[in-house]
Amino acid sequence: MESSSVVSPRASLNHSKLEGSECTPLHNLELESSDTGINHCEYQFHSSSALDILRETVRILRFNSSGFMITAAVLICPVSAILLSNLVVDQHIVNKLTYRLLLVAEVCGLPLTPFVTVSCHKFSEMVLSLTMCFPLFITSSLLSKAAVVYSVYCTYSRKKVEISKFFVIVRKIWKKVVVTYLWVSMVIVGCIMLFFVLLVAVCSTVSAIWFSPDLVFYAAIVVGLVFSVVYANAIVICNIGIVISVLEDVSGAQALFRSGVLIRGQTQVGLLIFLGSTVGMGFIEGLFEHRVTTLSYGDGSSRLWEGPLLVIMYSFVVLIDSMMSAVFYFSCKSYGMGASNGESQPILESIAVPPESTDIQ
């Protein structure tokens, strides 16, 4: 994040239209007026889609690229490197967990096909990696999300992005952001546990009635598809819940409930954002495993540059995902989707900061 003066990208592109003439809306998101008494033109989204959110995200990134790149380099890249390299994963524990999952699958009547075996191994590896990296997620990763949300907020409110002011704000809001993240973690764990309970129940029932491994496998696929939809919706709500915990005076379950109300009618956009980010991160993870983790070609000398390059690419996708969540929040706000009961007001402006840290462009 940079300490230079930051003005909205659309405000800088239309400076001549802001003086003495009526503003022409270039894009659709409403900008908040600053406290300097200047009457700024308002921009609103006339059409909300995942592509619009992506365009707006790229525009903000180009306008304040150095600040976002510093956030990615300092806070996101270390976590990405550890996740991709699986440095904290003990393969012996992964193999034991995979073996137990295969035993459960066999008891439920699932045929132990290569797909089932690989899926159990990947799931075991993912669960162990996420568990071991949880301290990083609740510190560095969560701090990076807060920094991204704050930077996007400053861009829309036409204020300076200052590191000193950000850390003053973080000290005030960190507790409720962490509480919200813990609730997010419980929601995700609950979804996964519910999936396994339903999977075991459905597979056991089908196996007991029809005694056909193929039917059991198809039933498991159906349960997996249903779970994917539920899980994707939960992730969208959780991502916006984190943004809300930064910008509004709510936290925990209340922030998640507020998120669900806010994105009502815009869920499809959130799902497309989640799908794009998941595909991007999954593609880079596959490349890293094939080109870096598994030596499947040459002498492996290219790992020296391919590994860091893929870590940077993965970090960039994570950064874009966090930015799109923040932009999606402001998009829903501009639509007035959250004007129902229980709406909370932004609190960043109410946080006391030193006078030298509150310069407004």
Alpha-carbon Rg, integer: 23 Å
Low-pLDDT runs of 5+ residues are 1-47, 337-344, 352-361
Average per-residue pLDDT, rounded, comes to 79
Structural class: mainly alpha
Q: What's the number of extended β-strand segments?
A: 0
Distance between the first and last residues' Cα = 17 Å
DSSP helical segment count: 12
Core attributes:
mainly alpha, disordered C terminus, 361 residues
Task: Give a summary of the structure in a few sentences.
With 361 residues, the protein is an all-alpha fold.
What can you see in these coordinates?
It is built from twelve helices and no strands. The chain is an all-alpha fold. The longest helix has about 50 residues, at about 165-210. Residues about 1-45, about 335-345 and about 350-360 have low confidence and may be disordered.
List the helices and strands and how they pair.
Layout: H1 9-13, H2 15-18, H3 50-63, H4 65-85, H5 91-107, H6 114-132, H7 134-157, H8 163-210, H9 213-247, H10 252-262, H11 267-293, H12 303-334
Helix pairs in contact: 3-12, 4-7, 4-12, 5-6, 7-8, 7-9, 7-12, 8-9, 8-10, 9-10, 9-11, 9-12, 11-12
